[in-house]
Amino acid sequence: MKKYKHLVFDIDGTMIDSLPVYMVSLIKTLREITGREYTEEELKFTFGIPGDATMRQLGISDPDAAVERWLDNLVEAGSKDIPLFPGIWELLEKLQEKGVHLGIVTSKMRSEYIAQFTANGLLPFFDNVVTADDTPKGKPDPAPMFAYMKMTGAAPEEILFFGDTVYDMDCARGAGVDHALVLWGCLCPDEIEATYKLEKVEDILDFV
User: Fold this and answer.
1) Are 184 and 85 in contact (CB under 8 A)?
2) Residue 123 belongs to domain spanning
3) Residue 104 included in any domain
4) Domain membership flag for residue 76
5) Are 139 and 168 in contact (CB under 8 A)?
6) Same domain? 115 vs 201
7) Which residues have a Cβ under 8 Å from the Cβ of 198 and sit 6 or more positions away?
């Protein structure tokens, strides 16, 4: 198995089990704005892209205001208390002990990331973090991964990116970075191409 110096993670659906809270709050937000009751099936394409992109793709006339309302509904739904997937904390401890560079490339805004990772205790594990605030384009564009490389000086072949959506895989692929699809959080694993597909959290240890 190839070894990597930098292991870079998506957050939602990769490290934290956020889909239930995400969907409840998004459906509520859209109901308040449009009066329409969306289904989870209609909205699953939005999981993994920035909030403003979600609102634009849904045809919302004021995406920024809609995102603000969505963030309020996320907090109300308990976004700071979303559980980690089983084994994530132990994995990060082991990777930290091995001296691996741990990074994040996320579609979350930085304030959202800091609040959530302060609450769940993961903040100290990650030295290099790229959020939606840091690049003009988000996933699936490769810009966030290029930003991580510029931030760290890492070469593409030194990085493995873990995510749960096609947007994650496309972002890494576009930057020439190997990418692993995590099946514990993926909604449509058979439809997504990836360098690796991982069934268990502990499989990540094989790459260091």
Assistant:
1) yes
2) 6-17+82-207
3) yes
4) yes
5) yes
6) yes
7) 162, 180, 181, 182, 183, 204
Stretch 133-146: mean pLDDT, rounded?
96
What is residue 50's predicted lDDT score, i.e. its pLDDT? 84
* Pair (172, 104) in one structural domain: yes
Asked if 98 and 137 sit in the same domain, the reply is yes
Cβ 37 vs Cβ 31: under 8 Å: yes
pLDDT tens profile 66-92: 999 998 898 887 766 789 999 999 999
Give DSSP secondary structure letters for 101-125. EEEEE-SS-HHHHHHHHHHHT-GGG
Phi-psi region of 132 (alpha: psi -120 to 50; beta: other; left: phi over 0): alpha
What is the tally of structural domains in the chain? 2
Tell me which residue has tokens 């490290």: 15
Residue 161, domain CATH? 3.40.50.1000
Q: Fill in the amino acid letter for 54.
A: T
